[in-house]
Specification:
Layout: E1 4-15, E2 18-29, E3 33-38, H1 44-51, E4 59-64, E5 67-69, H2 74-79, E6 82-85, H3 97-102, E7 108-109, E8 112-113, H4 115-128, H5 144-157, E9 162-166, H6 174-189, E10 193-197, H7 201-207, E11 210-215, E12 218-224, H8 230-238, E13 256-266, E14 273-283, E15 287-291, H9 298-306, E16 313-318, E17 321-322, H10 328-333, E18 336-339, H11 343-347, H12 354-358, E19 369-370, E20 373-374, H13 376-389, H14 407-420, E21 425-429, H15 437-452, E22 456-460, H16 464-470, E23 473-478, E24 481-486, H17 493-500
Parallel strand pairs: 3-10, 3-11, 6-9, 9-10, 15-22, 15-23, 18-21, 21-22
Antiparallel strand pairs: 1-2, 1-4, 4-5, 7-8, 11-12, 13-14, 13-16, 16-17, 19-20, 23-24
The structure holds adenosine-5'-triphosphate and magnesium ion (MG).
């Protein structure tokens, strides 16, 4: 008999308008890495939230070590040794790293908090697994990569034996992903059992022992990874073959749409600039990419460009007009679209409906407003049109509260809105983060179409495949500066890596 640590049998979970999990069975062997694959909205996070006690299923049974258990809330899950790293982290921003890790299982002796012991344990774990964190940093000040390490340490601190990772690699850099893969293999070798959600088929091929596939809430099958291929996985998942390469003709750049001159941004953390003397341009009809390892100033640069953050010096020209000091709304209505890095903080109002989110930057325009009142019918029609064009799936269509949508569908909604809005420049930061392979193929095609229709595209991406596949020119950012410009057709991943790690730079050459 197989040694299953967890069995989820015939689980059904419904939400208004949708059966998110329809009679799903998933069996996790002890010590295995079990990948869970499925399109955006297929029901992966829901199934894992059922296992973690966040949702109670209408039907089905969960067994732990062969015995039926009731998991009504996350405390029950923790007691059973089940931990979860969520797709959208659940950390307390204004607490320190250490406080977040111990939250809910604070160590105490005679009723007093013994934080020093906790600190020692956290440091021990972080060294053992090479999970670098600063225990005293505030969570709001640390990178997403570090936030994720905090979430992982949280599970290890509780000695969890079943570890759920909901799309852990969507927010990581290639280097961090390699690290995480190593850590997962180590944990599995120690006997921990891992459920791993990812949209990246290479990762599944690399670390997973088995993979279960869901489609539209239904269980499709489970395969041994050693006996399958990426092509088989993707066709099981979307029901058709997926192209992995982007088809595009050479770019035919026209007039200059964006000009960035000597832009500097002061760091909020240290005394140096986080963006230093950045200059480049983007012309109509080309896709320019800023590549680099996360944390090298890309976020701060985009903040300054779009108006989310202050710029300390330099000049930004959009369609011939100096917009350096202009407001976000001004830029939004004068040619700039922006798919932001953090979809929850800057992309959506989570407690608004999908249709309200679709007109966030335009509700005051005559198309959607008359006499101070929103034109409800127009708003709905507009939202429905975008949702169907970009295949944004949700339980209740335009009326769905965005918070309840799956992560990938939230992302598709933002991309749809920003691409459809009147613009000359699209600033797309990690536009395909968290999307399934079918949706990525679609978004990439749309970006190329935009380019061919004469839009200027500034892509900021950590995904090297995306950078190489989609860009017409690549600028590499390192420690806040543009250290080189390469032609994707002439360069190699190795050369790009040298620039990204600071080992190579174009001396004295103006990146332009
Ligand atoms: N709390 C909720 N309330 C209402 N509907 C929900 C809720 N959570 C999920 N859903 C719906 O259930 C479906 C499955 O969502 P789920 O988040 O499980 O998808 P997923 O497979 O994790 O997708 P992704 O890859 O995009 O993260 C979606 O259609 C979503 O809109
Ligand atoms: Mg999900």
């Amino acid at each position: 008999m197989e040694d299953y640590v967890i069995e989820m049998l015939h689980i059904t979970k419904e939400f208004p308008g949708i059966i998110a999990n329809d009679d799903i069975t998933l069996q996790l062997k002890r010590g295995e890495i079990h990948a869970l694959l499925g399109e955006n909205g297929a029901g992966k996070s829901t199934l894992m939230s059922v296992l973690f006690g966040l949702y109670t299923p209408e039907k089905g049974v969960i067994k732990k070590d062969g015995k039926e258990v009731k998991i009504s809330n996350p405390n029950d899950a923790t007691d059973l040794g089940i931990g979860m790293v969520h797709q959208h982290f659940m950390l307390v921003d204004i607490f320190s790293v250490l406080d977040n890790i111990i939250l809910g299982s604070e160590p105490s002796k005679f009723g007093f908090l013994t934080k020093e012991e906790a600190r020692a344990k956290v440091i021990r774990l972080s060294e053992k697994y090479n999970l670098k964190v600063d225990p005293d940093a505030m969570v709001e000040d640390i990178t997403v990569g570090m936030q994720q390490r905090v979430e992982i340490l949280k599970m290890l601190y509780r000695d969890n034996e079943v570890l759920i990772f909901d799309e852990p690699t969507a927010v990581l850099t290639p280097q961090e992903i390699d690290e995480l893969m190593k850590i997962m293999k180590e944990l599995a070798a120690e006997g921990k059992s891992i459920l791993f959600i990812t949209h990246k088929l290479n990762e599944i091929m690399e670390v997973a022992d088995r993979c279960s596939i869901l489609r539209k809430g239904k269980y499709i099958g489970t395969v041994d990874v050693a006996n399958t291929t990426k092509e088989e996985l993707s066709s099981m998942m979307v029901g058709r073959n997926v192209k992995f390469a982007v088809d595009k003709a050479p770019a035919n750049p026209g007039k200059e749409v964006l000009k960035v001159e000597n832009v500097c941004v002061k760091s909020k953390i240290h005394s140096n600039d986080s963006v230093h003397n950045v200059s480049f341009n983007v012309r109509a009809g080309e896709i320019v990419c800023i590549a680099g390892i996360d944390g090298n100033g890309q976020t701060e640069f985009v903040g300054a460009l779009t108006g989310l953050d202050d710029i300390s010096s330099g000049k930004i020209t959009l369609c011939g007009e100096d917009v350096t000091k202009k407001s976000i709304r001004y830029k939004n209505t004068h040619g700039m679209s922006h798919v932001p890095e953090d979809r929850h903080k800057h992309g959506l109002v989570l407690d608004y409906t999908l249709e309200e989110n679709m007109i966030l930057q335009r509700y005051f325009q005559p198309a959607f407003q008359k006499g101070g009142l929103i034109k409800k019918k127009e708003m709905r029609q507009y939202s429905d049109r975008l949702a169907s064009a970009f295949d944004v799936r949700s339980g209740q269509g335009a009326r769905t509260i965005v918070r309840s949508m799956s992560g990938g569908n939230q992302q598709k909604a933002i991309v749809a809105r920003e691409m459809d809005r009147d613009h000359e420049l699209l600033v797309a930061v990690q536009p395909t983060r968290g999307l399934d392979v079918g949706a990525i193929e679609y978004i990439h095609e749309e970006i190329v179409k935009e380019r061919d229709n004469g839009k200027a595209i500034l892509l900021v991406s950590l995904e090297l495949d995306e950078v190489m596949n989609l860009s017409d020119r690549i600028l590499v950012m390192y420690e806040g500066e543009i250290v080189g410009e390469v032609d994707p057709k002439q360069t190699t991943l190795q050369e790009l890596g040298l620039y990204m790690s600071g080992a190579k730079r174009d001396n004295g050459k103006e990146a332009n």
